[in-house]
């Protein structure tokens, strides 16, 4: 079940009452390790090396699950749609119901990395549904809205929840979304940076509307996850913080 205006090439969805994730842990899925079958249902890992129904027939070498979390209205669905389809969902806000997912395969340094991205409902009433999916996530993108102070104030509560339900080694990134809305901004960039530093999190400001830093956020996650499971001993470790610092763009280039 999902917002009704979801456009083409949907990945899949799970109603609030769907089965919970299986107990396969948060191991990445590598070629030759997954069981055969159709596209991964909500409670199974994506399968490597097969044509992806939601991903336009893409093949891949390794797959990971990424979850988008944060208060209702911060722009999780828009961020995902921007990344997947390169479009922005303008118009009436339709809140996500339950949980939904989309697949996208990225080329990461010559390797096909499939991200199965779970778009969760930010509304409190769906929180128990979201909890059930945390433990299978390899990475979490935690969003707040720079025009909504309450969504920023909720970040600590989200971090507590993540600590409780997610894997201890989950890759986590904090994103301050909607930086195109400069007039309405109430959370300064420095406040986001300070909070991120406090918790040792990589941090970026994004705009799903303008596409600012959206691809970069997912690419950074994909690089980190790929390195974690594929890195040769001689290879230098991927530095996520440095990468987004170097590649990230500021909100100043994001005037609507
Ligand atoms: N200006 C601006 N508006 C945005 C941006 N991202 C999302 N929005 C708007 O914010 C509203 C909420 O966006 P959604 O992506 O549906 O929010 P959500 O986090 O998925 O909300 P839930 O599904 O309820 O958890 C919509 O009206 C979007 O058009 C952005 O980057 N800039
Ligand atoms: Mg949504």
From TrEMBL:
Record bears the keyword Ligase: no
Q: Which SUPFAM superfamilies match?
A: P-loop containing nucleoside triphosphate hydrolases
Annotated spans, Disordered: 1-53
Task: Report biased composition (Pro residues) as residue ranges.
Answer: 38-48
Reactions that this protein is recorded to catalyse: GTP + H2O = GDP + phosphate + H(+)
Q: Name one GO cellular component term.
A: synaptic vesicle membrane
Q: What cofactors are annotated for this protein? A: Mg(2+)
Q: Which InterPro entries match?
A: P-loop_NTPase, Small_GTP-bd, Small_GTPase, Small_GTPase_Rab
In alphabetical order, the GO MF annotations are: G protein activity; GMP binding; GTP binding; metal ion binding
Q: How does it sit in the membrane?
A: Lipid-anchor
Q: What is its EC number?
A: 3.6.5.2
Q: Which UniProt keywords apply?
A: GTP-binding, Hydrolase, Lipoprotein, Magnesium, Metal-binding, Nucleotide-binding, Prenylation, Protein transport, Transport
What is one GO biological process annotated to this record? Golgi to plasma membrane protein transport
Subcellular location as annotated? Membrane
Q: What is its main location?
A: membrane
Question: Which family would the database say this protein is a member of?
Answer: Belongs to the small GTPase superfamily. Rab family.
Question: What PANTHER family does the database record attribute to this sequence?
Answer: LD44762P
Query: What is the protein's given name?
Result: small monomeric GTPase
Which organism's genome codes for this protein? Delphinapterus leucas
């Amino acid at each position: 079940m999902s917002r009704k205006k979801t456009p083409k090439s949907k990945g899949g969805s799970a109603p609030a009452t769907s089965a919970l994730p299986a107990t396969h842990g948060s191991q990445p899925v590598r070629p030759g390790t997954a069981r055969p079958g159709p596209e991964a249902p909500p409670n199974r890992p994506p399968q490597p090396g097969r044509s992806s129904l939601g991903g336009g027939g893409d093949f891949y070498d390794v797959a990971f699950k990424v979850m988008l979390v944060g208060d209702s209205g911060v722009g999780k669905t828009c961020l995902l749609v921007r990344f997947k389809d390169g479009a922005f969902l303008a118009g009436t806000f339709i809140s996500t119901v339950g949980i939904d997912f989309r697949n996208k395969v990225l080329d990461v340094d010559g390797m096909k990395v499939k991200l199965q991205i779970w778009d969760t409902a930010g509304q409190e009433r769906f929180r128990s549904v979201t909890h059930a999916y945390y433990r299978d996530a390899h990475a979490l993108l935690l969003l707040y809205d720079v025009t909504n102070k309450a969504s920023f104030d909720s970040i600590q509560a989200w971090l507590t929840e993540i600590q409780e339900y997610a894997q201890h080694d989950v890759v986590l990134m904090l994103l301050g979304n909607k930086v195109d809305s400069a007039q309405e901004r109430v959370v300064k960039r420095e406040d986001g940076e300070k909070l991120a530093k406090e918790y040792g999190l990589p941090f970026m400001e994004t705009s799903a509307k303008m596409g600012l830093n959206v691809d970069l956020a997912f690419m950074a996650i994909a690089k980190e996850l790929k390195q974690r499971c594929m890195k040769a001993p001689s290879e230098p470790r991927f530095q996520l913080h440095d990468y987004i610092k170097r590649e990230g763009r500021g909100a100043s280039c994001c005037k609507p």
